[in-house]
Amino acid sequence: MSIIGKPNAGKSTLMNALVGEKMSIITPKAQTTRHRILGIVNEADYQIVFSDTPGIIKPRYGLQESMMSAVNQSLVDADVILLVTDVNERYDEADAIEKLQKTSSPTAVIINKIDKSDEETVKSKIEYWEKTVHPKAVFAISALHQHNVQAVMDFILENLPEHPAYYEKDTLTDRNERFFVSEMIREKIFKLYEKEIPYSTEVIITSFKEEPAINRISAEIIVERESQKNILIGKGGEMMKKVGTFARKDIEEFLQKKVFLELFVKVMPDWRNRKNYLKRFGYED
Ligand SMILES: Nc1nc2c(ncn2[C@@H]2O[C@H](COP(=O)(O)OP(=O)(O)OP(=O)(O)O)[C@@H](O)[C@H]2O)c(=O)[nH]1
Ligand SMILES: [Mg+2]
Q: Which of 10, 19, 91, 173 is least crowded, fewest Cβ atoms below 10 Å from its Cβ?
């Protein structure tokens, strides 16, 4: 079950709504999601494996190339595809449409953010998508307000093939705690910094010690240039403190435990284009 679409369309918001858990981080900035992230729903008589993916773009550097191979990989495996679109986007979804043409899996187009639109626009978008990609269904929804999300869920259940469960019954995702912790830190960076900073940043968990009453976590925030390091840290370390405080709150809620979080900023020139760094950071070819 693959969720694809352009950056910022609301794919991660929809996945979280369908799974009923906060799996993927969500920010107002494009290209928030960098990996394929699985969210698994287990019920007595079925299992649905959702896969959230990075927004479809034309890659300009190594990191973005890896992001696009995550999208392609998720399409290869998908039994059902949801193409998420923002109702207020212009009609320039050629890259996403092209990907759909390579698959024969049942597809639904999701017109999202209808809370920010009007009936007439929604109607014309439904018509546009029906005649452009001939999907099996079109849904107009608001993932943010959980409006019409159940209809999408029903479509998925109707179209999922009979198959033995791919994962153990209590599995929720393919990612570990460290991954989610690093994502929570990255989410704060996407929200607190502007321009190229979020896109030049990676977060690596360097130490994760579980003690009875507290978890001690250290993370490195990787940037590409010395000047970015200074911006990240901010005057007197103020900005870094903010990142740490907000991230720690989320991590404590996620782990249901007290957390001591230590952040270090490190420069790795041009990491977004260096194969060995990308590999080490968990990005596949
Ligand atoms: N008004 C409104 N905003 C929404 C809706 N769904 C998502 N958003 C907002 O749109 C922004 C992007 O949402 P995401 O879920 O991160 O989008 P995405 O498609 O995963 O983005 P990338 O990971 O960058 O590809 C966030 O600010 C969301 O709160 C919706 O139904 N209505
Ligand atoms: Mg996303």
A: 91
